[in-house]
């Protein structure tokens, strides 16, 4: 019996050792897989960090004013160009309501535009008038054109909207000056033409009357004189 018992114990021990060795091999294989997965995650995290840093640099230093807002139109991010556009430091912009920097006449349009961007994913070319912080009353308005795009959170958080604001005040001023110049030219031309054209009309009416040759000649001379004024 002791011999049989020893045999069984030896067999059990060998079977246990074999099972342990097999289990150890499986653990080592899983460990290698985990190490590979960790290395892949680390590489992905490094790539994301580089991409995020590049995005932050491009966002912060871009010459175009960028403002990121949430669905309540609260400023989440703002770059240096936006701070210069609004005339306020970035730390004052962040957390503030975008509406506070938009004039009363543009505020409703701004709200509708941001809501449209969140609904459609993007939007283009809304016109707003910005109120610059610290500008005295009576300062010329600052006209901006804005485009927007929605950023979806990769973690399932609330989406945000990035707005690009371009100062178009100079272009508006040029367009206003051009329209004013056109109006002035039209006013001058209409004033200068009104007199000679009236003279021509009166002379034509006189020619229809039963006048003598001398009066006809005077009418023709008057028409020629008025036409020469129109040409000049």
Low-confidence stretches: none
Q: Taking all residues together, what is the mean pLDDT?
A: 80
Q: Report the total helices.
A: 6
Helix/strand order, N-terminal first: HEEHHHEEEHH
End-to-end Cα distance: 139 Å
Describe the global form.
rod-shaped
The assigned structural class equals alpha+beta
Description:
The chain has 232 residues and is an alpha+beta fold. It is built from six helices and five strands; from the N terminus they run H-E-E-H-H-H-E-E-E-H-H. The protein has helices spanning 2-61, 80-86, 90-93, 104-120, 169-208, 213-231; strands spanning 65-69, 75-78, 122-130, 142-151, 160-167. It has a five-stranded antiparallel sheet, with helices on both faces. A hairpin with a 5-residue loop joins strand 1 and strand 2 (75-78). Helix 5 (169-208) packs antiparallel against helix 6 (213-231). The longest helix has 60 residues, at 2-61. The chain is rod-shaped and about 155 Å long. The mean pLDDT is 80.
Summarize the entry for a quick read.
With 232 residues, the chain is of the alpha+beta class.
Topology of this protein?
Blueprint: H1 2-61, E1 65-69, E2 75-78, H2 80-86, H3 90-93, H4 104-120, E3 122-130, E4 142-151, E5 160-167, H5 169-208, H6 213-231
Antiparallel strand pairs: 1-2, 1-5, 3-4, 4-5
Key terms:
single chain; 232 residues; alpha+beta; five-stranded antiparallel β-sheet; 6 helices; 63% helix
